[in-house]
Automatic annotation (TrEMBL):
Keywords: Membrane, Transmembrane, Transmembrane helix. It comes from Caenorhabditis nigoni. The chain crosses the membrane at residues 6-26, 33-51, 57-80, 92-115. This is Major facilitator superfamily (MFS) profile domain-containing protein. The keyword Hydrolase does not apply. InterPro entries: MFS_trans_sf. The keyword Transmembrane helix applies.
Length: 133
C-alpha cells in the first residue's frame, strides 16, 4: 500500500541530478518546455490504460509524470528567478517587504481557523475505499 509513496519520493531524486545537466545542455526555456511536454503526454497516455487491468504500466506512466512535474517545478525556480530578479535594497522598502509577508502569514493563520480539524475526526475518510463509499 505504501509502495507508491516510496516510488513517488524516489522518482524525484534523478531530477535533482538531471535538470542541472539539461539546463547546461538545452538551456532554460527548452528544458522547461520539454518537461511540460513529457508531463502532458504522460498524463494523456494514462487514459489509454486501465489502472486495474495494467497496474504496472499505469504505475510507470504515473512515475514518469511525477518525474516531469518535479523537474518542471525545479526548473520554474531557476528560470523564474532569472526572469524576475529581485533586488534586495535596504531601508524603508525592506521594512515593507517584511510587513507584507508578516501580514500574509497572519491572514493565513486566521483563515486556517475556518478549516476543520482532521486528526481525530472519524467522519474524515482514511482510505480510498472509505472515500468511495
Amino acid at each position: 500500500m505504501h509502495l507508491s509513496y516510496i516510488f513517488s519520493g524516489l522518482v524525484e531524486i534523478p531530477s535533482y541530478f538531471l535538470i542541472p545537466a539539461a539546463i547546461d545542455w538545452l538551456g532554460r526555456k527548452p528544458s522547461v518546455m520539454v518537461c511540460h511536454l513529457i508531463l502532458a503526454f504522460s498524463l494523456l497516455s494514462m487514459y489509454l490504460f486501465d489502472h486495474e487491468a495494467d497496474p504496472e504500466i499505469f504505475l510507470i506512466i504515473w512515475l514518469i509524470a511525477k518525474f516531469a512535474v518535479a523537474s518542471a517545478f525545479m526548473l520554474c525556480f531557476v528560470y523564474g528567478a532569472e526572469l524576475f530578479p529581485t533586488n534586495c535594497s535596504y531601508g524603508i522598502y525592506l521594512f515593507f517587504k517584511y510587513l507584507f509577508y508578516a501580514l500574509c502569514s497572519f491572514i493565513c493563520t486566521i483563515l486556517t481557523t475556518i478549516l476543520p480539524e482532521t486528526k481525530e475526526n472519524d467522519s474524515v475518510p482514511r482510505s480510498q475505499q472509505q472515500s468511495l463509499a
